[in-house]
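User: I'm curious whether this sequence folds into something compact or stays loose and floppy. Could you predict its structure so I can see for myself?
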Amino acid sequence: MSWGKELDYAYGHEPDANVRERILLLRRVRIDKQEAASVAELELHRSREWAYKWLKRYNNDGMRGLKDKPHSGRPVDVPNAAATATMLKAMSVFVSLTIVYESCSNKDDDEFHC
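Assistant: Here's the prediction. I'll summarize afterward.
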């Protein structure tokens, strides 16, 4: 299998959108012979530094270099009770706003009256 086909296969089977974006960068630069800065800025709306970082990671570590490294520090942990309370409050505000909107709308014209 050619290198271009391998990249196409990897792109099509990669579930992580960030990694697919990096594979696309690699394909454009290595197979399509486009300039890294141009691909990053014009096609992917990223900085040239971003492009050079991922190309370097690929050069050093191959395809696994395109995956994010584990982050240090404690993972975010929101207790279930706090998450549920926040969700209920947001739903309550949404329902209240919906009621106000429906009671203030005049069906006879397109204007908003309250």
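Summary: The mean pLDDT is 85. Helices lie at 3-13, 17-31, 36-43, 48-61, 80-104.
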